[in-house]
Write a structure and sequence with these properties.
single chain; 377 residues; alpha+beta; Alpha-Beta Plaits; 2 domains; seven-stranded mixed beta sheet; two-stranded antiparallel sheet; 43% helix; elongated
């Protein structure tokens, strides 16, 4: 998209994306969900269940979002981006590591609460989740869907800020989004899969005591179509198993196999070296207020330079058009000003009078009173 010559270059920003899906919905629609509800015989149970899911899950995320003393973050919880079938997609611009931890924690808590609600309704359905990060305005892009005023020539910081506030009005495109959907395909009811960028930052947050109470799991490397040029991608997840007995069974099974718990520091260091080895751009996020891990990524620096150059070109082109449309110094037309026209008219009248006087002097009256030319005329 082209820049807005009057606007401000879009800031570098990370957005977190969250996917929650109703697991078992296909079988539910064909089975128990096909029954009519008691107070609306024309409405199958699965329709009401899906409608409640769309309405209630985002509210659970919002209620679970607690930021404590950081009042400036109180309204920056994940909001609905769009719904696709039995899936809800939410997103949120991330301010710093502290904020990221709050957003992920709220999403995981909503998964737990809604899963328990479904358990109480007969265990026909469950929820599974995934989360990832994507950088904007480059290499991923924001595209306006509804507001015709946000056209291609108005791509600036105001446009991105509007998308932060109302993600339903835009679409997000790019490799970061595609990768996130691929990672979401590896999720399950007992694990929330996360992209390597998100796992890296959450591991750092865990080391800083900002993200506690969640266990990292590693599921080896898998080929994800179109991701990392099809190089096997490390799959990480956060444990979302709600059943105590299943948790304990897995713990004792791991002991029998001799496996050990994964430490957040191991996750962080492994992913850091993997991303460097695979030329994956490191996400930049403040570790605390105003404390950035490093300078902006090279891709954003290049984007900003190009954006500013394009904006300047547009500004100069517009000035040239305005100058071409401006009236000239004499008034903008081929016509003379009225005052000048009046002066010229007076001069012409005076010259005519002088010419008339000369002619009158050149003629003399004859004896009959007739005028005749004087000698020499």
């Amino acid at each position: 998209m082209a820049p807005n010559s009057d606007g401000v270059c879009p800031e570098y920003r990370l957005r977190a994306f969250f996917s929650v899906d109703l697991a078992g919905s296909t079988a539910f629609k064909a089975g128990a969900g096909s029954a009519a509800v008691a107070d609306a015989r024309s409405e199958p149970l699965w329709v009401r269940t899906t409608r409640n899911f769309y309405r209630e899950f985002p509210k659970m995320v919002e209620r679970s979002y607690i930021v404590g003393e950081r009042g400036d973050l109180s309204s920056l919880f994940p909001k609905v981006w769009k719904t696709v079938g039995d899936e809800i997609l939410l997103c949120c611009r991330i301010i710093d590591l502290h904020h990221l931890a709050h957003c992920v924690r709220a999403f995981l808590e909503a998964l737990r609460q809604y899963g328990e609600r479904l358990d109480g309704s007969g265990r026909h359905l469950d929820v599974k989740g995934a989360a990832w990060l994507a950088a904007f305005p480059h290499p991923n892009v924001t595209v306006s869907l509804r507001d015709v005023k946000l056209s291609a020539d108005q791509f600036d910081e105001a446009f991105e800020a509007a998308a932060d506030n109302s993600p339903r009005d835009v679409d997000f495109l790019g490799n970061g989004i595609d990768c996130g959907f691929r990672v979401a395909g590896r999720s399950a009811t007992d694990r929330c899969t996360v992209s390597i960028e998100l796992a890296w930052l959450l591991a750092e947050a865990s080391e800083r005591k900002m993200f506690r109470g969640f266990e990292f799991k590693y599921h080896d490397r898998h080929q994800l179509k179109g991701v990392l040029r099809d190089k096997p991608y490390p799959i990480f997840s956060l444990d979302t198993e709600r059943s105590y007995d299943r948790q304990q069974t897995r713990i004792y099974e791991q002991k029998l196999n001799g496996s050990q718990d994964i430490k957040p520091a191991h996750v962080r260091d492994f992913i850091l070296h993997f991303m460097k080895e695979s030329a994956v751009e490191l996400p930049r996020l403040a570790m605390g207020e105003g404390n950035w891990t490093a300078s902006f990524p090279a891709s954003y620096v290049e984007f900003r330079e190009n954006w500013l150059a394009d904006a300047e070109s547009l500004r100069l082109a517009r000035l040239t058009e305005e100058e071409a449309e401006q009236p000239d110094k004499a008034g903008g037309t081929d016509e003379l000003p009225a005052a000048v026209v009046d002066d010229l008219a007076e001069i012409v009248d005076e010259l005519k009078q002088q010419e008339r006087a000369k002619r009158e002097e050149a003629y003399t009256p004859d004896s009959e009173g007739m005028r005749k030319p004087a000698k020499g005329i």
